[in-house]
């Protein structure tokens, strides 16, 4: 089976950071690519939290929708190789979130998100078992936002994903880095746009991504 290929012309450091942290969380993580035209590519990664995350790059891709092992992508980027490994499309958990059609509902200060994440980490250490934080903690609604006639609940699993992948800036980050997250929704999908990437969660399916 022929390998997939990727050439990155812009956004490489950010992609290395995202994919590297995804593999730290889950050695079996996958990456899926979506071409948006004009050389723009959205790169999605799986996480153990039933949430997917993404960063946007520019470059050339062998095939729209290609799914490959995250560790293969990471090695290729570090070695300046175009070969990102064999396709593994069946391993992707359902459909991707829509590329457009999102309604911006609210913005959240990074400090509030960090505080929620710190509280969640304390609870996770206190109550976690061998399989990680309990579902009751991950499914807990920590933020509710309303806008445009729509009400959206943000579960702890989205906050965990943002902080575990380090998508929000630390205290030492430059002042040019935004200090807020945007909450948007499109259908059953909720999206959090952080300064260093976006996370997506599908509502109403018990954590299972829609096909």
Automatic annotation (TrEMBL):
* Superkingdom of this protein's organism: Bacteria
Per UniProt, residues of the DUF8010 domain are 14-94
Pfam families xref list: DUF8010 (PF26035), DUF8185 (PF26572)
Domain DUF8185 per the UniProt entry, residue ranges: 97-204
InterPro entries according to UniProt: DUF8010, DUF8185, UCP012637
Give the protein name, as stated in the record: Uncharacterized protein
Q: Which organism is it from?
A: Corynebacterium yudongzhengii
